[in-house]
Amino acid sequence: MTTDSAGDSGDSRPNSGADSRPIVYDLAPNCTREDIEHDANYHAVVNGVVEYGIFIDIADDISGLVHDSNLDRSYEVGDRLTVTLESVRDNGDLAFDVFNESSYQTVVVEHDPELTAIEELEPGIDAYVAGKVTKIKQTGGPTIFRVADETGIVATAAFQEAGVRAFPTVELDDIVRVGGAVEPHNGSLQIEVESLTQLDGADAEETRARLDTAFTRRAAPPDISPLIEWDALEPLIDDLRDVAQLLRRTVLEGRPIRIRHHADGDGMCASVPVQLALERYIRDVYDDDDAARHLVKRLPSKAPFYEMEDVTRDLNFALEGRSRHGQRLPFLLMLDNGSTEEDVPAYENLAHYDVPTAVIDHHHPDPSAVDPLLDAHVNPYLHDEDYRITTGMLCVELARMIDPSVTDEIQHVPAVAGLADRSKADAMASYIELATTVGYDHDRLLELGEALDYAAHWLRYSDGQSIVNDVLNVGCSDESRHAELVDFLSSRAERDVERQLNATVPHLTHDRLESGAHLYQIDLDEWAHRFTYPAPGKTTGKLHDRQVKEHGEPVITIGYGPDFAVLRSDGVRLDIPRMVTELNEEVIGGGVSGGGHLVVGSIKFVEGMREAVLDSLVTKMGDAELDATLSSHAVADGASQIDN
């Protein structure tokens, strides 16, 4: 703005007639010689006094001499005055005269330097970049600001005092212009900040618009064809592409990504390829080898829905990360869970914070409950398909959209996911054939799935990234170690399952429902090995499979404990999510909750109401119609796994 000598203020441009007073320019600290003119007047401050005159600054990097012949009084360092640029000498030195007018108008001059794209930065140059602040971290020395422009992200180091926040008014998502020397730092480039300006008004809006356009363009996923031709998958491809664009843009904007997934075979087949693809994409975007480690993490969930325990833990870590590391709250990607009404309380908790959330799942969804709380929701049921399209199958395509370079390493994964979740989709033959081309026949795929499930059981809440990647052979650097791990873990799993069956089969109770279906029940708390593999959900699944194989008729199996029950069905038209809702309403004081797939699920209840809940559950099962096409063999042994 302009300010006259008496303190009046007005327009920031020279007045074209209303004010005839001379102009004195007040240069911004980062102005350069490109911003000065001969015979123009400037505000100055004395930086040195010598016998032949005074040295003055009119900007941080613009200094000159006022010769003593032009001085009519003495000055000291720090004194302010107005000067006129008299000449620029051959050697580049600036000579000034004192400007003594008592009435003038002040015009502020902001330096508008030439900007350099972040992708074009080189060590040893001085450069200006403009972009959005994506991270602010205070170290024991400088303050580190990460800035993203249309082409990349760069760290900028600003130093005020050791451990003291530089530019304290700058916040996350602010638009800034940063200038300084570009230097190598820990294997990447960093700008040593000499100036940092917060942009506002039209400048900021123009930069935001430019960044938005660029991020949208750069985040667009590559146009790739699915691994196999499958009509049922086609309606979901556009939904997956939208999520891929969201994730790629999240990376470009420097926001962390947290992947929450069900800790079973399908959940890991979904999450591991996506994590690998995101890490590859992050390394392409960032000039920083450690960026992937900080920006993407995989978090297993034992339940097939987002529990309050998990969301509370996630929020706590995210808020600590924002406080300690100056990063934005994460983007949450839910895989193989997240579609049901049971997830709503967790999402409502997230709604108090800026945590965008997307879901890719194949459990029976409740879109009216969850969709208002989500940024994206991909589920085969939303396109009149069902759980035969597993989350792992969907996420392999998602991973390829994020970074196609992972394709060769993950093309066996859909077959593992399908077999782990017992998918009876016609497309399974194509997926198995595809896996065979890279060395996995049907039996080996089953062993891989068992090994994965066994590892997940013992990892519990840990992501176990290295061992899981080695077992699944995704991002694995040692093929022989992969083979040895699968042999060892799958054989241990087979041994433990056999031991569990030997303990439980003699204690199965058998009834025949009015519909003709066989009903098997067992008290797992009483008769199963506890706190070991397989967990109650897996145990119930193995018992169920044994009885189906023996009878070849409609079979329901219930494995229960003090306050839970695991349900499996073949050939009976159940709707477990609906049954859970009805039980909660009908069994007063039962505290029934749970869900899962239509014919595979788990429920929890108040321990003292177990008998009433199970009696009512069996009654509902007896009323269900038989349907030979509806088989729990289409879903995972561990789809409703409970560690009791």
Plain-language structure description:
- Strands 20, 21, 22, 23, 24, 25 and 26 form a seven-stranded mixed sheet that branches. The chain has a five-stranded mixed beta barrel with strand order 4-5-6-8-7. A five-stranded mixed β-barrel has the order 10-11-12-14-13.
- The protein is 35% helix and 25% strand.
- It is of the alpha/beta class.
- It contains 18 helices and 26 strands.
- Strand 1 and strand 2 form a beta hairpin.
Count of DSSP-assigned helices: 18
Please state the CA-atom Rg, rounded to the nearest Å: 33 Å
Number of strands: 26
Low-pLDDT windows of residues: 1-16, 633-644
- Please give the alpha-carbon distance between the first and last residues: 69 Å
Average pLDDT works out at 90
Query: From the structure provided, what is the oligomeric state, counting identical versus distinct chains?
Result: single chain
Helix percent reads: 25-40%
Structural class: alpha/beta
Strand content: 25-35%
For the sheet with most strands, the description reads: 7 strands, mixed
Shape: elongated
Please render the helix and strand layout as text.
Blueprint: E1 2-4, E2 9-10, E3 23-27, E4 41-50, E5 53-59, E6 62-67, E7 80-88, E8 94-98, E9 105-109, E10 126-138, E11 143-148, E12 153-158, E13 175-185, E14 188-198, H1 201-219, H2 234-252, E15 257-262, H3 265-285, H4 291-295, E16 296-301, H5 308-325, E17 331-335, H6 344-350, E18 357-360, H7 367-370, E19 376-378, H8 391-402, H9 407-410, H10 413-420, H11 428-436, H12 442-459, H13 465-472, H14 479-504, E20 509-512, E21 518-523, H15 524-527, H16 536-551, E22 555-560, E23 564-572, H17 576-586, E24 593-596, E25 600-604, H18 610-623, E26 626-631
Helix pairs in contact: 1-2, 2-3, 2-8, 3-8, 3-10, 5-6, 8-10, 10-11, 10-12, 12-13, 12-14
